[in-house]
Design brief:
The structure is a single chain. This protein is of the alpha/beta class. The protein has helices at 15-22, 39-52, 62-67, 77-96, 110-120, 134-140, 145-150, 181-193; strands at 27-32, 57-61, 100-104, 125-130, 172-174. It has one domain (23-190): 3-Layer(aba) Sandwich (Rossmann fold). The chain is built from 8 helices and 5 strands. It has a 5-stranded parallel sheet with strand order 2-3-1-4-5, sandwiched between helices. Helix 4 (77-96) runs parallel beside helix 5 (110-120). It is globular and about 55 Å long.
């Protein structure tokens, strides 16, 4: 099948041309952490702040992606890996178009996050670990998933019946039980602007 594929990347407009048009540089900010840790809430705050500053931004959120392009995937190890692979490929397209992209995914293992980083590219990838403790995430339980996982109704739920590997060297660590949303957003904005 690969012999019938003829990419036209060399004929398309370049990333530099797109970034010049937008007056900004593409970047992937990858939020990782447990369900309910605050990934999406922080990303939405960052998106609003970037918008005020005239910076085009796109959020890729786990539930939104799984309701659309990845609706055919479950939560097996293989499906989780494919979920992240597809997201990273989509994210790479946004980044190469000059868009600041905020990805909000549990992405529970170092291997899965390494895959995303390799696809997107080291120079364009910033990892933000939302390190909110499990007990705080569970108290929030905004989706009711922790309660279902504790009852055995949700299998392989990260933090309860499936492991979460904390990143060894994230670019930024935020604990939403210790910081205000304003502080968290400011820290991410600083990370983006200093890139």
């Amino acid at each position: 099948m690969a012999e019938n594929i003829y990419p036209i990347y060399d004929q398309m407009m370049t990333r530099a041309e797109k970034e010049e048009l937008l007056h900004q540089q593409g970047l992937m900010v990858w939020f990782t952490g447990l369900s309910g840790s605050g990934k999406s809430t922080i990303a939405m705050g960052v998106e609003r702040e970037l918008h005020k500053r005239g910076i085009l931004c796109r959020i890729l959120d786990g539930d939104n992606i799984r309701a659309g392009i990845n609706s055919n995937l479950g939560f097996s190890a293989e499906d989780r890996k494919e979920n992240i692979r597809r997201i990273a490929e989509i994210g790479k397209l946004f980044v190469q178009t000059g868009v600041v992209t905020l990805a909000c995914f549990v992405s529970p293992t170092n291997d899965i996050r390494r895959l995303a980083r390799e696809i997107i590219g080291e120079e364009d990838f910033r990892e933000v670990f939302v390190s909110t403790p499990l007990e705080v995430c569970e108290q929030r339980d905004v989706k009711g998933l922790y309660a279902k996982a504790r009852k055995g109704e949700v299998k392989a739920f990260t933090g309860i019946s499936a492991p979460f590997e904390a990143p060894a060297h994230p670019n930024l660590t935020l604990d939403t039980s210790q910081m205000t949303l304003k502080e968290e957003v400011e820290a991410v904005i600083e990370l983006i602007m200093n890139t």
